[in-house]
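Batch 3, record 17
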Amino acid sequence: MDFLNIVIAGVSIGAIYSLMAFALILVWRSTRIVNFAQAGQAAFSTYVGLSIETATGNYWIALLAAVLSGVIIGAIVEVVIVRFIVKHSTSAATAAVAPVIAMLGLLGIFQGLMGLIWGGEYQAYPTAFAREGLIIAGNQIPFSPSDLFVLVVVVVAMSVAALVFQKTSLGLAMRAAAFAPEVTRLSGIRVSRIRTLGWAFAGGAGGLAGVLVAPSTFIAPNSFDLLLVFGFTAAVIGGLDSLVGGVLGGLALGIGLAVVTGYLGGSFTFMTAFVLLIIVLLIRPQGILGARGARRA
Amino acid sequence: MLVVRKSHAPSATKRVLLALVIAIILFFASNLVDEYRIFQAAQVAAYLVAIISIVLLTGFSGQITLGQGAFMAVGAYSAALVVQEFGLPIWSTFFIAVIAAALFGAIVGISAARLSGPYLAGATLALAVGIPALANAVPILGGEQGLSFDVGLAPGKYADTISPYQWLFWICALCAIIAVVAAANLTSSGLGRQWRAVRANETAAALSGINPARSKILAFMVSSGFAGLAGVSFSATVGLVSPSGFTLSLSFLLLTGAILGGISHISGALGGAIIIVIIPTIFESWTEEASLSVATYLPGIIVSALLLLSIAFAPEGPSEALHKLRHRRREP
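Prediction for the assembled complex:
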C-alpha cells in the first residue's frame, strides 16, 4: 500500500516532466536544437499567468494566459533568434555547439528580464484544487485533488496533441517536416512556417508545465532549472526523437524519483536522475523508443 | 578549415621568460592600486584559469561543457576537505585540487567521450546542477554553509607589510600565470594538435593514427585539472567553499567569458575574464541612481545578449573575427 501510494504520487509529477520533455522533443524534431531556454520561456509564461491571476483572481483565465503567452514567446523566439542562429553559425568550427550556447544566452536574457519585471524572490503560485491528500478508507494518501487535476490536464493536452499529429493535415505536415524537410519543402509545404508552429506548440506546452509545477516549486527566475534538467532526462530516456517515448520517459522518471525519494530521502533525488541520464546515454543512447543511429546528431 | 596552423608562437622557454617578466610587473603594480582593484584582479585571475579550462575542452577538443562549475567544485571541496580533516598546509591544497579534479574529469570523460552535441551539453548541464546538490547532501562537506577556505596572511615578518588582498592576488596571479604558460605550451604541443585534429574531423584523425576516444578523455582530464585549480583560486577569493558558490549561473558565466574572449585561443581568455568581472561592477555604481533590481539583473541581460550576438555574428569570438579580418587574404 505504501509503495502504491508513492507510485501514484510519482505519476502526477512525472506527467509534468512528460510535458517538459514533450516541449523539448517537439523543438528537437523540427530544428535539431535542444532548447535550453525552455526553462526561461516556461517561467516567463508562468509569471504572466501569475500576474493575470493576481489581477483577475481567476485561475482558469490565468492558465489560459500562461499557455497563450508560451505559444507567442515560442513563436517569437523561433522567428527572431533561432532562424538567424541556424543560418549564421553553420560554417565556424564551433558550429556544433553554437545553437546550444545561443540558447543559453537566451535563457540568461529571459532570467534577467524576469528579475527586472517580477523581482528575484520566490513567489507562491495558487492551485485550482486542494493540495491535501485524499482520504480513502480512513487513511490519507499522498495523492491530492490537485495531483489528479495535473494528471487530467496533461492527459487531455497529450490527447489533443496526438489527435493533431495523427489526424489532421497540419500534423502530417509537421511530422513530414521533421522527418524529411527537403522533400516536404518540395511538396509545397512551407517548412519554415511549420517550424515556427513547432516552437509555438512547444512554448505552450512549457507554459502549461510551468503553471502545473509552480504550486510545488514556487516561481522565481531560475526556479525551473531543475524542471529543465528532468525534462531533458525524460526526453533522453524516451529517445529525443519520439514524442510517445518522451511521455513514457517522463512518467518513468517521475515514478522512479518518487520511489527513491520515498525510501532513501530527498537528497538522493537529483543524483538518481543524473545517474539514470548517464546510464541511458551510455547503454541505450537511442532511448526506449528512439530510432537507431539517431544519437549522432 | 585548416587544422594544423604553422605556429608563429614563441617557444616554451620564451613563454616562461615572458611569464616571469609579467609576474614581476604585476608584483610591483599591485602596490600602486587600491585594495578593491586588487581584489577584482584576483577574481580575474581565478576566472582566467576557469576560462582556460573551457577553451581547452571546447575550443581545442571540440567538446561542449555547460558544467565547468562542477569540476571547480570538486577541486575546491577536496582542497578545503584536506585542510579541515588533515590540516595540510594551504599551498599543498592547490596540487591536491588539480589532481582530484583531474581524476574526476577522467571518470566523467570516459562516459562523455561517447557523447556529442546536445547530449554532451545536457549531461554536463546535469553535472553542474548535480554536484552542488550532492555536496549539499553530504554531511562532511558542511551542507549549505560549506567549508571555510582561507589563504590567510603572508608568512612571517611580511604579514604586517603585505595586505591580505595583495597576498590573495599574488596567489591567484601565480596560479593564473602557471596555468597560462602550461596551457599555451600544451596547445602548441603534439597533444594540442591531436585535439584540434579530432575536433575538425574525427575519422580523418583516426586514420592518421590518433585514438579519438583517448584524446577526448585526456582533454576532459586536463581541462578538469585546470578547472580544479580555478576552483581553489575562486574559493580563496570568496573565503568559502559552498554549494551556492558553484551554481549553474557560474558555469554559464564562464562559458560566456570563454565565447566572448574567443573560444579557440588561449590568449582570448584574459579578455573574457576581464569582461565578466568588469560588466557587473559598471552597474554597481548605478545602484544609487537606478533601482536595485536594475543593477542586479541588467548586467546578466547585457552579458547574455553579448553572448547571443557573438554567437550570431562572430561564432568563434570577437577576437577571432578580427583575426580573420586581418588575415583574410591568407585564407581565401
